[in-house]
Amino acid sequence: MSWVGWVAVAAVAVALAALTVAAVLWRQGQELRARLGRTAAGDEASGDHPARDPHHRGPLVAVVANPTKPDVAGLRIAVRRECAHQHLPEPLWYETTAEEPGTAQAREALEKGADIVIAAGGDGTVRAVAEALVGTGVPMGLLPLGTGNLLARNLDLPLSDQQAALHVALTGVDRTIDVGWLRVLRHGATGDGTPADDGRAGADEHGTPRTDDHLFLVIAGLGFDAAMVADTDEQLKAKVGWIAYFVAGIKHLHGRRTRVHVRIDDEIGTTTRLRSLLIGNCGRLPGGLTLLPDAVVDDGWLDLAAIDTRAGVAGWAQLFGEVVLQGVGVRNELPAKIGRIDHTRARSVRVVVPAGEHVQVDGEVIGQVRELSAWVDPGALVVRVPG
């Protein structure tokens, strides 16, 4: 082939190479423009969220929120934005209803592969979400939006800074804690004063909680404390917060003492009269009060406090002094006291109240009860706490 032919072949080859490079560059430009278009559309829809790397798969976050709490819509935007900043998948979002307070939503989140479930609401929402997560190993984050925020308070979580609480939920460390269970064995009087069904519900052979089993994370109680919760005015609570509980408690200062029969673990039972019996997993309350100073949320024990007063207001005044002092580590061991708190601990407890009494779990009244049992479930729940 002459040199003219070789030149012609080379020219054709160069032309083909140039066309190939041009085609590749055109295709890459089209893909780049498409990606930029998708990013802009995503930013516009989500409020200028940073673009996520489609190949990066972080933990899937689910939020179970109580829509009756203030600015839940703004909270949803904040959660999406924070997940985007941390290059996490789009979070799952569920809202509670009166019929489904959070347990069903949390279980659906688990079925969809959630790696962390955040309870955004008050103590009732936290209890409901925790019931679904018990025994799963999936951590529960907390965005405290309620009046008491009892578990968040005992875990030293931010109570008034939602952004800080969200940061802990997404980036904190996992801590395994105990949970308590309370089972109603015999109900008390119904609303019209007639005795309720005394039959004991049959055990679930699959081990799932029965309808008369109630999880608690902080404190269950019967007597004065439950009656106080039952009579708390919801409108006043919305205005002044936890102080509304103390206002309701004033109405019960002159209430009757309750006769109860208590059996701790395998010991012989004892019968006594008292104002209130508390069964706690941890014991810090709003207002800086500590009812159960020895309670530790992950020690495998329930802490019990038998509260009694005599002599009317004077007895309650001494009792309040006892609570304040024990909160700072001072115990009054004098035997003759008109207001007293007696402490012990147990793995399980059984209580019989012949006359029936109100019972509450973490601030939720479950009705009048004449017989109940309670036990600790050690290390059953994982929660997200500050690192």
UniProtKB/TrEMBL annotation:
Domain DAGKc: 56-187
Keyword set includes Transferase: yes
Gene Ontology BP term (one): methylglyoxal biosynthetic process
Region (Disordered): 38-58
GO cellular component: cytosol
Residue ranges the record marks as coiled coil: none
Keywords of this entry: Kinase, Transferase
GO molecular function: kinase activity; methylglyoxal synthase activity
InterPro entries named among the record's database cross-references: ATP-NAD_kinase_N, Diacylglycerol_kinase_cat_dom, Methylgl_synth, NAD/diacylglycerol_kinase_sf, YegS/DAGK_C
PROSITE patterns named in the record: DAGK
Name this protein carries in UniProt: Sphingosine kinase
